[in-house]
Each structure stands twice: as C-alpha cells, then as structure tokens.
Amino acid sequence: MPYLSIRGARLYYEDTGGSGEPVLFSHGLLWDSRLFREQVSALQGRYRCIVYDHRGQGHSEPPPGGSAIDLRTVYEDAVAVIQALGLAPCHFVGQSMGGFVGLRVAARHPELLRSLVLLDSSAAAELPLTLARYRLLTALTHWLGLRPVVDPIMSLYFGRTFMRDPERAAERALLRRQLADNPREVWRAMQGVIHRRSVEGELHRIVTPTLVLVGDEDLVTVPERAERLHQRIQGSRLVRLPCGGHMCILEQPEAVHAALRDFLETAEAPAWVEEIRGLG
C-alpha cells in the first residue's frame, strides 16, 4: 500500500493521478479515506483526487507512545502532505475533523489552497456540555473499544431521517460495522479532536474561496455553527441540505456531489493570493 513518511509517521494515501487540478480530501473522526469513495469516483475524470488517512486512523500508523493525537499535529500533517506531493495550490475538501484541519490550513497557509470545502464542520471548540459527553465516549473507547458505544455514535452522526428509513437498514448495518472495526487506540484521535482549540479568531484571515455545507439535522456541528462560519469567512457560499445529519456525505451523496461539482467549477482565488504563489 502507498505511504508517505510524514513527520515521524507513515500516512496511507491514494492518488488517482492525472493532469487535472488536485483535490485533497480529509476525512472525519472515526472514518478513513474510504469516506470519499463516491466523491472520488464522480470527480476523478476531471480532477486529480488524493485521499489520505490521518495518523492513528485507517491504515495510517499511530505515533509512538500513548498520548492523544492533537489537532495541531494533524493540521501540520496536512500541510506536509500537500508539500510532499506537490499539490499546491489544491482544492481541500474536509468533512468534520477534516474541516477543522482545512480551516487551519486556509487561515495560516493561503498559498497552499485553491479552494476550501467544509462539510458539517466548525471553527469553534466544544461546548462544556458536549465535551463532557464526548469525554465519556472517549474513556469508554479507551478501555473497551468502540463496539460498546457504536449505537450512541450512530445516533449522533446520522440524521433522524436516515436512521428511521427502513429502506436504508442495510446501509446502517454496514456503517455500524465499519465504526465498530476501529481499533481501541482510536481514542487517541478522539481525545485530540474533542479538546481542540477554537480558531474563530482566525477566520478573518481566510481569503480562499470557501463552500460551507451542513445538514439541517446535524447534531454534532449544528447548522448555527455553519451559519457562523459563512458569516465570518468573506465571500463564502453556504448550502444547507434538508433531511441530512452530520454525515451528509453518506446520507445524501448525490446532493453533496452536485454542490461540490458546482463549487469547484467556479472557485477562483483572489489575485493577491495568486501573486504570492507566483513569488513562491
């Protein structure tokens, strides 16, 4: 399997190749690069699509030791991946945790990105009430693995419409098994994500063309947080999907495809960012 040696870790990645503009996909917590399988299939004829697994998730190796994998480390990994593969400037598509990463890249390294897509994501830190709940889930995962907490995670991640649809029972069963297959050590990534710092104070720096997409039934990063992102990121575009939860990308893949294709076709960076890239 293809790996990149990044900052003391081996990160798994897949690259469709081609001469199209590069699109880097960054997955959400407890998932891996398979999350974007349908998006890659839909876009690879026109774009060069690259997916990778965050350290400690999917096929990527966890760092030595037993401490949390903090979000700063994961963000720095993303910068290193872009540089190692020569992707800049690239389109960056981040789902939830991947969006946390993308926001930091866009605010701190605008020269690396052509556009930014935030799927069910947020710039804020966790609120005290939700943090307490997530700490409990993380502790249970640490000691028992993910299997005992799969049902509450499914109820958090997926909207009520998807969870109650009898015709999608087989999909739910497959996704439940995929979540349960996470190794117990995934708690290290969970710990880093739930204790992330807010970057709302950095949003004014983002000049990268940005699409903010959220499901109206999202319980993890509620639509109000997406609205706040849209208001604070100059020139951003907001798409709200009815009957979608935190995992719109799996619940409504065709709607996500349509929004993504339309945005990528029209995204253009400001002239001054292009000047910086030229100087590089």
Largest sheet: 8 strands, mixed
SSE arrangement, N to C: EEEHEHEHEHHHHHEHEHHH
Structural class: alpha/beta
Tell me the Rg in angstroms: 18 Å
Specify the number of helices: 12
Please state the average pLDDT score.
94
Q: What is the structure about, briefly put?
A:
This protein has 280 residues and is α/β, with parallel strands linked by helices. The protein has helices at 37-43, 71-84, 97-108, 128-144, 150-157, 160-164, 169-180, 187-194, 223-232, 248-251, 253-266, 271-279, and strands at residues 3-6, 9-15, 22-26, 48-52, 90-95, 113-119, 210-215, 237-241.
Any overview of this molecule?
The protein has 280 residues and is an alpha/beta fold. Helices cover 43% and strands 16% of the residues. It has 12 helices and 8 strands. It has an 8-stranded mixed sheet with strand order 1-2-4-3-5-6-7-8, sandwiched between helices. Strand 3, helix 1 (37-43) and strand 4 form a beta-alpha-beta unit. Helix 4 (128-144) runs antiparallel to helix 8 (187-194).
Strand-helix topology:
Layout: E1 3-6, E2 9-15, E3 22-26, H1 37-43, E4 48-52, H2 71-84, E5 90-95, H3 97-108, E6 113-119, H4 128-144, H5 150-157, H6 160-164, H7 169-180, H8 187-194, E7 210-215, H9 223-232, E8 237-241, H10 248-251, H11 253-266, H12 271-279
Parallel strand pairs: 3-4, 3-5, 5-6, 6-7, 7-8
Antiparallel strand pairs: 1-2, 2-4
